Amino acid sequence: MKINDYITPTVIQPTPPEQIYEDITSTADRMRDKLEATINTEASPADSFEVLKSRKTVIKRIRQILQNAEGQVIVTIPATLISTLSDSLKAAVNRGVFVLLLIFKTGDKQIDLSNIELDPLAHIVRVREVEIPVIVSVDHSCALVAPRGVITQPNHHVHAVRLGQSYIEPIISKSILNTDWNLGNEVFVKTACELPQTFWNLKHAVFQASLHSQAGTSLKAIIEAHRVGESGDKSQIVGQIVDIEQRIVNPFTTSDIGKCTFRINLEDGDIVSIGGPDAYLEDYGAYKITLDSI
What we know:
By secondary structure, the protein is an alpha+beta fold. It is built from seven helices and 16 strands.
């Protein structure tokens, strides 16, 4: 109905059925659009949260995460889980994913890797003789965190979580690298790649640059990047690598925990620092890095 209270006396008029039908239909359409948008958003893998209640489900999710990895994977698992996940780790390495593997002991058993071929599983393997959480962190996109009991004690009444929020994964990956990774003992490093080689992941490029520099190879970098703090298109910069700062592979070359960067001497003589796409402390944020010998 329609109430006209701006005249005296107040007049109440019935609303035509056609208008009522149109109003209800319009409202229903808007509600449907909002519900569909909400459902689609909640279903998005990039913004999901999942509680995992069994060892079987945790292992299944870890395999799925490794299968979908494209750039970088950081994995902390007990030694007893290596054989279970070996195929998934090998496949990731074969796809060119940069894999960091941290193995920890279970209970009172010391870690024995004598019968395990590490080369296909990761680029770097470190071990810790303590029990730590199971963590899989991938591509600045998702992470899985599980108390070690979920894997080592199937009847343990604790749950794991899979986090699909892209803003959480970097926090988890940095936490691993800044603590347990640094405290671990390096037991394997993959042989340096052939040059030239192109990378879309900064840590992988820094790792390879470190290996070649340790071998005495002078390197140049061809980089697609943006100038940090400036708006504008990507540009290509070229220069010789003159310094590397990292705490991924031995020997560490910086005391600054979490730092992973290198500096290049540009053709005009300027020396600039290179970070990842989200860099804010470095001079340039790199999207694509090609390394070659000089």
